[in-house]
Amino acid sequence: MKLISLAGRGASTGRKQLDLLLARRTAAWERALPTAKRIVDGVRKDGDAALRRYAAKFDGNLQPSQLQISLDEMQDALDNISPAFERALRTAAKNIRAFAEHQRPKDWNFSPAAGVIVGQRIQPIGNIGCYVPSGRYPLPSTLLMTVIPAQVAGVERIVVVSPRPAPETLAAAAMLGITEFYRVGGAHAIAALAYGTKSIARVDKIVGPGNAFVTAAKKSVAFDCAIDMLAGPTEIVVTSENGNPHEIASDLVAQAEHDPDAQAIFVTTNTDLAKAVIDSVKQRARTNKTAAESLARSGAAIVASTLDEARARTNALAPEHLTVDAMEDLFWVKNAGSVFVGRWSAQPLGDYVSGPNHTLPTGGLARVRGGLSVMDFLKVITVQEYQPEGLRRLGPSAIALAEAEGLLGHAEAIRARGLNE
Q1: CATH number of 250's domain
Q2: Is 320 a catalytic residue?
């Protein structure tokens, strides 16, 4: 983990180092794009034959003819997990569901003028595909985070794919009542969900994080099938002036252990605190190979010259996870996937049990969207109804606008209702 100074004579060098660091955020999936596109095109063209071939090659599925996981296998996994783990699953699921229920928007109407009613109706997307990674670590938490908001939204068909699902992930699926779960992953799973094969019917939208090839495949299919976001390697930023260096370091290491390409950054104006955090990170990452690799490659403590600069740099980073010192800091936070406030809010709590989703925007995408939510599984359908009085009140304005645009048929469609200007 390197120290980057944006103050004094080293500021110019520090800015260049920071730019290089940020350039790495999308590099992995961009490099994977040509290969992912070939795989996607293969499945789109050859369907099940290509899907099974790739499942055997990449997923370690020695029986690619049996892609679908049976209900009995999922239930058996649930029956054999420890009582403590089942309690943890149910606690997490309860909080995620409650949060999604609070997020769900409502139908409404109002009248902008007499004789006119406008409003919105909320409808769920019909078919959803949830991608659950299972490479470096089993991630039953991701199954909860992707499936539960879809259930709260009212999605009728929820499909889960994962290349090597652990028993804990199968147990989570059984607990949630999942009936369609396929042992397949990578770019070929994304292609199957997007275009459909004999084994897997196509879906309307794909959600969930994955490796570089999964992300690249989602980009490749995005014009044909909706996706949630291009989620790259995990990111964490801690912005603090007076935090505990060991607690800050523990969060940085925790997120860095996800992936060698993860990015862990500390932002402060306090040089002594920055050095203390770096020292603590080194100690904590000694026995964590993945975290050590990530921190050596993309870890940094950024020392800004002023508090305003530290805040501006944090917003420019638009991090996936952000920790700040106090609730008062929220006034300056403009770009972040999920914010953790204060020393007791360890970031891994948000990965599992808090309720807000842990599928979050990376690579600066937090400038324009938040994390996965119940809204990702819903459509807003607008509604409008006119009575004769409303037509009389608003019709002339609509006719004037139509004629100004040269759309005379638009104007005539309004006059045809008996409107005499």
Answers
A1: 3.40.50.1980
A2: yes
